[in-house]
Amino acid sequence: MSYPTQFRYTKDHEWIDAKGDAATVGITDYAQHELGDVVFVELPAVGTALITGKTFGSVESVKAVSEIYAPANGEVTEANSTLQNKPELINTDPHVTGWLVKIKLSNPAELNSLMDAAAYEAFIEEKKKEASA
Amino acid sequence: MESVASPEKIIPRKTPLNALHRRLGAKMVNFGGWDMPVEYPANGGLVAEHKAVRSGVGVFDVSHMGDICLHTKQRPGGALQAVQHLTMNDASKLAIGQAQYSAMLYPQGTFVDDVIVHRLGEDDYLLVINAGTREKDINWVRTNTASFDCVVEDLSDSFTQLAIQGPRAVDVLRKLTDVSLDSIKNYWFTHGTACGLRNILIARTGYTGEDGFEIYIPSDASTSESVWNQVIDAGREFGILPCGLGARNTLRLEAKMALYEHEISDTINVWEAGLNRYCKLDKGDFVGRSELAKLREQSLSRTLVGLEMVERGIARDGYRCLSETGEAIGYITSGSPSPTLGKNIALAYVPPAMSNLGTTICVEVRSQKCKAQVVATPFYKRIRKAIAS
Fold first, then answer.
1. Average pLDDT for consecutive 10-residue bins of chain B (389 residues)?
2. Are B82 and B150 in contact (CB under 8 A)?
3. Is there a shared CATH topology between the B18-62+158-254 domain and the B299-375 domain?
4. pTM of the entire predicted model
């Protein structure tokens, strides 16, 4: 799966897609692979304030719980309620219909410090090398 | 005395099939000091593997398990006396070719490890032990049998152990051996030719709650890979999948089979773990017996129960159990979504007063209190086919 070039990426494997101060957040294809079959998603309520680098929810596979970290400061405007009944969308379509939350960014310029698609792909290549070493 | 404190990186041990697992794209984890496959995403991953075992067949590399043999040195019965002293079940009941679930205990009645005792011959026994406790177990066996008329042999590295599990396991193995599998009953074993290798131990045992076999083959990499591939090829028509420790764990949890450091440990005793029927106080003395006899007269402070989550949330190993009023009452030993039942299940230690079926118990899932209910166990029980005579 390719990594959309308009997204920005975190080292914790979240993606964020921003247009002005409106952004959508999800976890990357690499993250869903690492996690395995997603069976449960816990997301914040609308209005919750997100703080960069702090956990705001969790995604669980059969085997493990994975915290999700806010890629930027902002406020939740919508949580993906479809995931409650279809958490597997995170596995099958992590970059589109498997999105987690929509947020209103406090400071869109914050995203400049995140990785672009090329940098993220290089980052996960390193991760894969470490894992197979 | 001089000591050299060099920061030593602990390299996990590998089974002879390690390279093969990596070629298959398995996700690897460190389990009890072993580099083991947790799931094979390319073949569908954990849930697909779990379902393959429940409805068809799966194969697991369980070579990390340890194997300890005890042989009589001189006087007939010496090995049996040692096994009786070491383990809590009654090994005198075993016929040659029969196995039993048992455990080695500390004097206080808690667990050194759980084991499967196989009677290989008149005066020969094989104990199959856990991976993470290998060194501890072998030392324990040697120390505690020193005064007995028996020889202890650690054969852990001599065998590659494959578990072929599921209702079609018998059909897969039938293609690979001329041994009459139907005559091997549950928890019995035999030796025969399999996968072109002579004198292979074939046991009708497993850790999945399903019918299946465990075979013990020579541990060199080429033999191990050849046998693995023969099993996969023979199983193709039955939809066989390679299975990792992830599915092994969810399968054994559904069947309420104990996992060391979870349901049993050096601080949990036999009565608490509810393994009474494998503990034979009247068979004669054994390590742990006198303390267990005393404890038998006292009431338990905690007992192992099965839980099913009522509210949204997954109980995980180590989470706290609370009463409805928020008071800490126990903890989760193992918890997971159950692929077979489609529910979130768990095993937990709670006070006996909270152990009745239907009792509401809360599980602290991170910051939230999620309701669960005490349910009957095992969570899953296979329907046994009557064997046509």
1. 51 96 95 95 94 98 97 97 98 98 98 98 97 95 97 97 98 97 97 97 98 97 98 98 98 98 98 97 97 96 98 96 96 97 97 97 94 98 67
2. yes
3. no
4. 0.92
Kindly list the residues from chain A whose CB atom is less than 8 angstroms away from the CB atom of residue B246. Answer: 36, 62-63
ipTM, two decimals: 0.82
pLDDT at residue B383, as a whole number:
83
Range of the domain at A61: 8-132
Query: Which residues of A fall within a CB distance of 8 Å from B50?
Result: 62
C-alpha angle B250-B161-A36 in degrees, rounded to nearest 5: 30
Q: Which residue of B has its CA nearest to A58?
A: B366
Domain ranges of chain B: 18-62+158-254, 299-375
Q: Which residues of A touch B45 (CB under 8 A)?
A: 36-37
Partner residue opposite B39 with nearest CB, options A36, A39, A40 = A36
CATH of segment(s) B18-62+158-254: 3.30.1360.120
Judging by DSSP bridges, how do beta strands A22-27 and A14-19 pair with one another? antiparallel
Instruction: Please report residues of B whose CB lies closer than 8 A to that of A39.
Output: 314, 337
B25 sits in the region (left: phi over 0; alpha: psi -120 to 50; else beta) called: left
Sequence-distant (≥ 6) Cβ neighbours of residue A126 within 8 angstroms: none
Interface residues of chain A, partner chain B, Cβ below 8 Å: 33-34, 36-37, 39-40, 58, 60-63, 65, 131-132
CATH architecture of B299-375: Beta Barrel (2.40)
Question: Does any domain span residue A2?
Answer: no
Percent pLDDT > 90 in chain A is 89
Amino acid B389: pLDDT = 38
| Residue among B28, B46, B366 minimizing CB distance to A63 | B46
Return the CATH number at A61.
Answer: 2.40.50.100
Structure tokens at B106: 């500390």
